[in-house]
Amino acid sequence: MDWLAEDTITTTDNTLPPWKVVIVDDDDEVHKITKMSLSSFEFEHKKLEFIHLYSGKDAKKYFSQHDDIALVFLDVVMESDHAGLDVVKYIREELDNHYTRIILRTGQPGTAPQNDVIKNYDIDGYKEKTKTTISTLNHAIHIALRSYRDLIRIKNYQKGLEALIDSINNMTQIDSVIDLSNAVLQQIKSVLNTENTHFLIKDSAAFSMIRSNNNHWNLSINESKALFVDDSKLIQNTQPIVMHAQQCFANKTHVIAPPYYCFYYQSKRGTETAFVIKCLGDLNSMSHKLIKLFSINMILTIENLLIDKNS
């Protein structure tokens, strides 16, 4: 079972936040032309939001207060011949911001030779204003935003993994199944927002939710409590969260039907588990992977508590 397989989960959200683009230039015409040239630009269904700054000093102040800038078009020569280069160093070295993409622009290429600048400064492009066209501008911004998107995904995934590890560490300190179950929602919310979770655990001899054998459990968790549920109460249950779990057991595979995400796992000792989570919104690919990792560790923790207790 590949718990890290890439899944295609799309979003229909039409209210996505825009990409924030800062224009730093002491020439107001450059601001107007850049904004006009990119007025209809979209990347991954998100438009651009422009922030206009007119000096290196203003840029340093703004970046010291904002860390969500996708891209900056940065003039080299402003209040000094190297004002733009100073801003690059400030962003990368003093603020330790390696996510924002930086495209330098200059009307005086001799002041800062291109090869020297690209070699010595952490930038994503160096453009002469007189040679920049709408086509080259669109090309550059596509590449820059794609890089920014990927870096932010990695950053967010790392944060999610840290939350995941903390959650697992917290849960391993609990020795009661009900206490653990009551902690599930709080722990999983630190990884991603959730509304409802449901555990269904069966041993290798009982694949159906309505079988009543020794060593099988139905564990329901909601916002207020966790409790064991008798099989007889699930026979006529038509709740989607239960029906998806039944399908999961029947097919021995994951069932992805947003807002329900059902993960199937069979451990080495033969115990089969369906972990179903109802989310407030669709999971993106990164969150999907995190919840899979969370699920398998949660499953094994609960299985150990239940099997050891009843062995």
TrEMBL record:
Positions bearing 4-aspartylphosphate: D75
Domain Response regulatory: 20-144
Keyword tags: Phosphoprotein
InterPro entries, sorted: CheY-like_superfamily (IPR011006), DUF3369 (IPR021800), Sig_transdc_resp-reg_receiver (IPR001789)
Protein name: Response regulatory domain-containing protein
Organism: Thalassotalea profundi
